[in-house]
């Protein structure tokens, strides 16, 4: 999927400026400060927002699945949430493999509105994984405890050969999982490339706070300097 020269204006305000990149097979991670345009970009890519300029070129067999950062609270059984709004999949069996991995099978007969926010998120991630091959998720790790975060990161790392993920995050520790990193600031791309090449300066410029890079046991960490 190719994002080409996207511009978004809301009223008189320019929200996104000249956004171009290819969503690569693997894990594409969008980072950026609050208000930098991450959610607007995802909504534009899925067609919820019409760009004032540019185009989004989809491949033939690409099936987008979107997990928003905030959820509705429908009074529907979890299994009906999984089955809803999708013409291609209509059997609960198609969701069970991911449901087992994400440990949500015990909720299938519960009312979706009664789940905790983390359980709702796992349910919608399960749905997206079973339905799409381009999985677009807005802050999929927020509201998740350390074990569920690990579960999601392991699952998407396992699936990254087959699917393309485009996810936003506020956590710099996810950088090491990225196939491609996109950093936004004030609606513009200020870094696009491999996570290996990201420097402290790139992050410091993006966030306007001094950011340091550490290696502990060969694992990469970033921390804002106090
Ligand atoms: N409907 C709207 N009307 C006016 N301004 C808007 C509208 N939608 C978004 N914006 C503005 O566009 C900018 C980008 O918002 P967006 O939600 O895309 O940022 P974000 O990077 O996802 O932020 P966060 O990390 O805080 O979730 C913000 O300044 C926001 O106030």
**What would CATH call the class of the domain at 1-62 and 134-141 and 163-226?**
Alpha Beta
Q: Spell the H/E element sequence.
A: EEEHEEHHHEHEEEHEE
- Number of H- or I-type helical stretches: 6
By CATH, the superfamily of the domain at 1-62 and 134-141 and 163-226 comes out as P-loop containing nucleotide triphosphate hydrolases
The end-to-end span amounts to 40 Å
Approximate helicity band: 25-40%
Total strands = 11
Tell me about this structure.
This protein is α/β, with parallel strands linked by helices and 226 residues long. The chain has a domain at 1-62 and 134-141 and 163-226: P-loop containing nucleotide triphosphate hydrolases (Rossmann fold, 3-Layer(aba) Sandwich). Helices cover 27% and strands 30% of the residues. The chain is built from six helices and eleven strands. The chain has helices at 38-45, 78-83, 93-101, 117-131, 146-159, 200-207, and strands at residues 2-10, 13-22, 26-31, 53-57, 64-67, 134-137, 164-168, 180-185, 188-193, 211-216, 219-224. Strands 5-6-7-3-8-9 form a six-stranded mixed β-sheet, sandwiched between helices. Strands 2-1-4 form a three-stranded antiparallel β-sheet, with helices on one face. Helix 3 crosses helix 4. It is globular, with a radius of gyration of 18 Å. The N and C termini lie far apart (40 Å). Bound molecules: adenosine-5'-triphosphate. Adenosine-5'-triphosphate binds next to strand 2 and helix 1.
Task: List its salient traits.
about 230 residues; Rossmann fold; six-stranded mixed beta sheet; binds adenosine-5'-triphosphate; 11 strands
